[in-house]
């Protein structure tokens, strides 16, 4: 199933979620609404709220409160983006200037805080303590992942195990929370809840591995960010870790120096070393394995277009070009 067909499958839900988001962005402080609206309207994939909607429908949910949950998830995600861009000193996201580039770091951090606070107000309104438990834990784990990643910037000794821990916390956690909380809201069986929770984790890992791959094989215009950004920030991603571990001494030394120095680097030379070492093929293979695992986990759900869409998302996560 193609991405556009997946979105069309839950078009009514998506429109309702968008309206919910825009209503909840309103604040008596105009700058809060302005920055929030700028970020939310940036045209991202909205994969996390989409996961909520598809999971709920795949489980036969009859009420409309999954739409509020999807909006909550998007607010949590947007808050992390605002904070991430400040931490990383990013100037571009999704092909546009970041909020911190336009308004400065302080307003961006504070509006991120506003979105976190608003999301928890909405969780109270949702009225499900188990859902709140999943989402509050997720926000804590994401913060821990951010700090762990920060502690490994320019650390060329970072292992693959540590890297996987970072992406599980930082990226996969909110994918997992999206599917897990939707299943709880639907009153799914223990077997189904656990399966879709693991699906979200596997999908998130596959998605991030593909992202790290695109840092070398992607198109900057399509991606909405500069190719090689992670390397310039001194982040040891899997292609770099593998090259240092399995590449030639010369390839390893080149990558190690680039990570330790950070900043402006000859991305062409690094890209050639990473490609020649076989690390991009290794990363792509691992991403496909996680995507395949995600698809297999969905076997506990009844056959439906929504389950097919969830399977399609797993395959799209590793086939995409941006």
TrEMBL record:
Q: Which UniProt keywords apply?
A: Magnesium, Metal-binding, Transferase
Q: Name one GO biological process term.
A: isoprenoid biosynthetic process
Q: EC annotation? A: 2.5.1.90
Which GO-annotated molecular functions does the record name?
all-trans-octaprenyl-diphosphate synthase activity; metal ion binding
Q: Which residues form a coiled coil?
A: none
Co-factor requirement: Mg(2+)
Query: Which InterPro entries does this entry report, sorted A to Z?
Result: Isoprenoid_synthase_dom_sf, Polyprenyl_synt, Polyprenyl_synt_CS
| SUPFAM superfamilies the record matches | Terpenoid synthases (SSF48576)
User: What's the catalysed reaction?
Assistant: 5 isopentenyl diphosphate + (2E,6E)-farnesyl diphosphate = all-trans-octaprenyl diphosphate + 5 diphosphate
Q: Which family does it belong to?
A: Belongs to the FPP/GGPP synthase family.
Known function: Supplies octaprenyl diphosphate, the precursor for the side chain of the isoprenoid quinones ubiquinone and menaquinone.
Q: What is this protein called?
A: Octaprenyl diphosphate synthase
Q: What is the lineage of its organism?
A: Bacteria, Pseudomonadati, Pseudomonadota, Gammaproteobacteria, Pseudomonadales
């Amino acid at each position: 199933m193609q991405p556009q067909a997946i979105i069309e499958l839950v078009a009514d839900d998506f429109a309702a979620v968008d309206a919910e988001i825009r209503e909840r962005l309103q604040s008596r402080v105009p700058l809060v609404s302005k920055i929030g609206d700028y970020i939310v309207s940036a045209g991202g994939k909205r994969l996390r709220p989409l996961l909520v909607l598809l999971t709920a429908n795949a489980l036969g949910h009859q009420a409309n409160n999954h739409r509020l949950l999807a909006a909550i998830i998007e607010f949590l995600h947007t808050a992390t983006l605002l904070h991430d861009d400040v931490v990383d000193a990013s100037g571009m996201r999704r092909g546009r200037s970041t909020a911190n580039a336009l308004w400065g770091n302080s307003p961006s951090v504070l509006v991120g805080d506003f979105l976190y606070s608003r999301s928890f107000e909405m969780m109270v309104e949702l009225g499900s303590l188990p859902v709140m438990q999943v989402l509050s834990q997720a926000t804590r784990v994401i913060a821990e992942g951010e700090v762990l990643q920060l502690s490994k910037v320019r650390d060329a000794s970072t292992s693959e195990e540590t890297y996987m821990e970072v992406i599980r916390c930082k990226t996969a956690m909110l994918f997992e929370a999206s599917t897990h909380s939707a299943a709880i809201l639907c009153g799914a069986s223990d077997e189904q809840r656990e399966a879709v929770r693991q699906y979200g984790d596997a999908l998130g890992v596959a998605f991030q591995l593909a992202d790290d791959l695109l840092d070398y094989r992607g198109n900057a215009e399509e991606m909405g960010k500069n190719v090689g950004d992670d390397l310039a920030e001194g982040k040891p991603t899997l292609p770099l870790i593998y090259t240092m571990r399995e590449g030639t001494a010369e390839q390893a030394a080149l990558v190690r120096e680039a990570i330790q120095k950070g900043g402006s680097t000859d991305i062409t030379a690094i890209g050639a070393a990473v490609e020649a070492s076989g690390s991009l093929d290794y990363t792509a293979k691992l991403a496909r394995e996680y995507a395949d695992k995600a698809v297999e986990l969905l076997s506990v759900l009844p056959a439906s277009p929504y389950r097919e869409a969830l399977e399609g998302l797993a395959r799209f996560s590793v086939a995409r070009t941006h």
